[in-house]
Amino acid sequence: MKQLTVISGKGGTGKTTFTSSFAALAKNAVIADCDVDAADMHLILQPEISETQDFYGLDVASIDKELCTDCGICVSSCRFDAICSDNVVDTYKCEGCGVCEHVCPEDAVRMIAKKAGEYYCSNTRLGPLVHAKLGVGEEASGKLVSDVRRRASELAEQSGKDLIIVDGPPGTGCAVIAAITGTDQVLVVTEPTKSGVHDLERVVQVARHFRIPVAVCINKCDINDRLSASIAEYCKNNDIPVLGLLPYDNVVIESMVAGRSVVEYSNGEFSEGIRSVWNAVVNLLSVGQKTDMIPFLK
């Protein structure tokens, strides 16, 4: 079983555009939407949910009012101001550190599990999809990403799928690390903007830190020819294959409005460009060898 993760360094580069089209082109894949803070793959794949699992992130403090003597030690000890003067815990401020439980002389404070979101297994026209929704203001997105990927791996084994396509989150933080560790190939979809160039370099550093093969696709390459050339030069100097340079095209917006991937919606130039990138990705997956497998985050 192979795993491909598509990431972007920043939002808005076209990551989901490519991932959804790859899902349409793949013959035997499970799709995992690991952008748990702002999932959007479901808007294109229109899934029918078959399984729902609760996700529990950080434990939060809970105060037993019958045992509490209003000594105020927990209030003064909390560095996040999560405990109000009437001993009510603000669960959005609580970081789950457990100091209040440790210092309470009456054992009135307990750390309890709090539901922080859900993840789902769904059926779509393009194959099985595992996706999630993190609650508003919740943390531990990396842990939820790991749960999504683990369930996708289980589905792939159960159904005999030979590829998992991961739509990764933007940025370079914990959720991105959880999305790329242990994968066979990372594809970075970037754009020729100042922030695009900056965040491309950062996310390449993260992938290489974990010794994962990296390839790049430059989307909307014609909005700034100079920066596109700069990205290509950076990739050349760092031995990173550039699998495609695709121009800005309104067909992307049209396909999203229609609830279809680009390759399902159109057979035009942009679709052919995505197909070319996909063929290059398949070639990398077939010949590439991963070293030092790193397990999912626990």
Automatic annotation (TrEMBL):
Annotated SUPFAM superfamilies: 4Fe-4S ferredoxins (SSF54862), P-loop containing nucleoside triphosphate hydrolases (SSF52540)
Q: Which GO terms describe its molecular function?
A: oxidoreductase activity
Pfam families in the cross-refs? CbiA, Fer4
Which ranges carry the 4Fe-4S ferredoxin-type domain?
59-83, 85-114
- InterPro entries given for it? 4Fe4S_Fe-S-bd, 4Fe4S_Fe_S_CS, CobQ/CobB/MinD/ParA_Nub-bd_dom, P-loop_NTPase
Database matches in PROSITE patterns? 4FE4S_FER_1, 4FE4S_FER_2
* PANTHER family for this protein: 4FE-4S CLUSTER CONTAINING PARA FAMILY ATPASE PROTEIN (PTHR43534:SF1), MIND SUPERFAMILY P-LOOP ATPASE CONTAINING AN INSERTED FERREDOXIN DOMAIN (PTHR43534)
> Protein name, please?
(4Fe-4S)-binding protein
Q: Which organism is it from?
A: Methanolobus vulcani
